[in-house]
Amino acid sequence: MIKATEGTTYLDPKFSSHYTGATNAGLIRGGYHFAHLDASSGATRRTTSFLTEVDGPVMVSPSPGCLISRAAVCSRLVPLLLGSRTLAIPTTPRQVWWSSCTGNSNAFVNTNPLVLARYSSSAGTPPGGWPYYTFWQYNDAYSFGGDSEVFNGDMAGLLRIARG
């Protein structure tokens, strides 16, 4: 996943070159949006802004302090605009965030694959009732830049997610 946007106005200046480079290297790639869902309004505007910049699988990364209702706006809006359910809701390296931000909600378990960000030697227990993680981000200092992630499944499953 390649960071594309943040908030309503920030477009990562390296997104296009990173996305093109990943495509040219034959990698399965997607973009993510760092959502400021703790703001008092604008979840729809923020999500729409992101979706104008990215094709392929998407991930919205909520900021600490987000409200479950605003994360739900993104969760509902992506399928409406893209016709797919490839949105993943990640957690931060400190899993207490999910509990404090959402009340340990299980609202996304049946609709959104989990991207678990935990920089450790093991993924640990997924939060919010997810029985397993779909992607585990285990490092934020990959040797070629970006994050290191592992997919919890086989190639057919990865392709299903990538194709929406």
Automatic annotation (TrEMBL):
Coiled coil segments of this chain: none
Query: What's a Gene Ontology MF term here?
Result: lysozyme activity
> Which GO biological-process labels does this protein carry?
carbohydrate catabolic process; cell wall macromolecule catabolic process; peptidoglycan catabolic process
Q: Which SUPFAM superfamilies does the UniProt record give?
A: (Trans)glycosidases (SSF51445)
The record, for Gene3D superfamilies, names: Glycosidases
| InterPro entries in the record | GH, Glyco_hydro_25
Family per UniProt? Belongs to the glycosyl hydrolase 25 family.
Task: Please identify the protein, giving its name as recorded.
Answer: Lysozyme
Q: Which organism is it from?
A: Xylaria bambusicola
